[in-house]
Specification:
The chain is an alpha+beta fold. It folds into two domains: 31-113 and 170-265, Aldehyde oxidase/xanthine dehydrogenase, a/b hammerhead (Aldehyde Oxidoreductase, domain 3, Alpha-Beta Complex), CATH 3.90.1170; 136-168 and 268-370, 2-Layer Sandwich (Aldehyde Oxidoreductase, domain 4), CATH 3.30.365. The chain is built from 13 helices and 18 strands. It has helices at 20-25, 60-63, 96-105, 119-123, 147-153, 202-210, 235-247, 259-265, 338-356, 360-366, 375-389, 391-394, 423-429, and strands spanning 40-46, 52-58, 68-73, 80-81, 87-93, 107-112, 136-138, 142-144, 156-164, 167-168, 176-182, 187-192, 217-220, 253-256, 268-269, 272-280, 286-295, 316-323. Helix 6 crosses helix 7 (235-247). The protein is globular, with a radius of gyration of 26 Å.
């Protein structure tokens, strides 16, 4: 278990970042800056439709284009394409312009299918399926105590619908890598924008893509321009780049997504929606929460949230579902599930605190679990934060925020992360 040092030597002191000058001066070279001798430029062809089936694909014209050294068809006839940005083929050429010209020369015949753009449309009667058999998948649910009975006996109740939208990653350095095959194709070297250079990440993906032992793969990542949980594997574009390199006689292939592809295919943080009813006694203790929650991560299942979040209620009932839609899949984004869970819970907590006429900080303090090892940390954080922003003097109840076009407000929320909030990590991440 991590413990606080008796005499901290670093906290509260000014520390110069070892990489600060290199990054500030532009001397730091990121994977997307690397261009080995003989580098070819890779470009992906991706679906222009949110939902379609490939009827036929012909890469022969692209292979004959000037500067083109390799072309690979990823999607064969009959392959379903489930979002705008789904991968179809890839080209490696002497210049990026030549590669883009060749991509436009690839002939694809599509059967365009109905698509689902929103959760409401996905859940509508007769909606076309994103995946069979249906668009709504049950998620984690829980029941504790007797929530209906406790709600009926509650002295004050609040009910509302809350939501947070899906957002896309869009890292400053886009997803991708430069990869080359060495020594007759037996070894692979890659400069990858990744959070995981090891044998469970990019190295294994590249080894599998070209059929070499993972011990023959070298992955270099001196710096990374943002990842936030979204850059662990080589992805289809990285594996395809390795195959293009192999087809081009081992020449390096640089394959980084453009900004449009970053939005379409590089992952999203799922949305969160919840209808929450909460009941409390006049003393501010919450006695029951009943919630229905859902979200979408596009074509990926698993948009569950954690309700209630942080706080402890004796009676809870939470039903959850994931709604499938026709856009790119979800990925981890800085504490998966936690930001959405925090917002949904805290919004409901604020509404109930207002119904009670209670200071939101005092209300939250009353509903922390005394047996949770996080609680002393939360209490200290609330005390410190409220003092720093002048909560007691500046906060005004709802409806008393003054007049005029410009208003100033204050809010609060408690959040945790540590690979699932485990004891050995949470103390280090607060």
């Amino acid at each position: 278990m991590a413990t606080w040092p008796e005499n901290p030597r670093l906290i509260g002191t000014r520390i110069t970042r070892l990489d600060g000058m290199a990054k500030a001066s532009g001397q730091a070279k990121y994977p997307s800056d690397v261009r080995p001798q003989g580098t070819l430029f890779g470009v992906m062809l991706y679906s222009p439709y949110a939902h379609a089936t490939v009827k036929s694909i012909d890469i022969s014209a692209a292979e004959k284009m000037p500067g083109v050294k390799a072309v690979i068809a990823i999607a064969a006839a009959g392959k379903p394409l489930r979002y705008h940005g789904d991968d179809i083929a890839a080209v490696a050429a002497e210049t990026e312009e030549q590669a883009r010209d060749a991509v436009r020369a690839i002939k694809v015949e599509y059967e365009v299918l109905p698509h689902i753009a929103t959760e409401a449309l996905s859940m509508a009667q007769g909606a076309p399926p994103v995946f069979k058999p249906n668009n709504v998948r049950p998620g984690r649910g829980q029941t504790k105590g007797k929530p209906e009975e406790a709600m009926a006996a509650a002295e004050v109740t609040s009910e509302g619908t809350y939501s947070v939208p899906l957002i896309t990653h869009v890292c400053l350095e886009s997803h991708g890598l430069t990869v080359m095959l060495e020594e007759g194709g037996d070894k692979v070297k890659a400069w990858a924008s990744t959070q995981n250079v090891g044998t469970t990440g990019v190295a294994k993906d590249l080894a599998d893509a070209v059929g070499v032992p993972v011990t023959n793969v070298t992955v270099l990542t001196d710096y990374m321009g943002g990842g936030f949980g979204s850059k662990f594997g080589a992805d289809i574009w990285g594996k395809t780049a390795a195959q293009l390199s192999k087809k081009a006689g081992g020449r390096p292939v640089k394959m980084f997504l453009d900004r449009v592809q970053e939005h379409l295919a590089a992952g999203n943080r799922p949305s969160g929606w919840a209808h929450i009813k909460m009941g409390a006694n006049r003393d501010g203790k919450v006695v029951s929460m009943i919630a229905e929650a859902r979200g979408t991560g596009g074509v990926n299942p698993g948009a569950d949230v954690i309700l209630p979040y942080v706080y402890s209620f004796p009676n809870t009932s939470v039903a959850q579902s994931t709604v499938m839609t026709n856009f790119g899949g979800s990925r981890a984004m800085r504490a998966p599930r936690h930001p959405q869970s925090c917002l949904l819970t805290e919004a409901a907590m604020d509404d109930l605190a207002d119904k009670l006429g209670m200071d939101p900080i005092e209300f939250r303090l009353k509903n922390l679990d005394p047996n949770d090892f996080h609680t002393p940390i939360y209490e200290a954080e609330l005390k410190m934060g409220s003092e720093l922003i002048g909560w007691r003097d500046k906060r005004k109840p709802r409806g008393q925020t003054g007049t005029g076009p410009i208003r100033h407000g204050m809010g609060l929320g408690l959040h945790q992360w540590g690979g699932g909030g485990t004891r050995d990590k949470s103390l280090l991440h607060h």
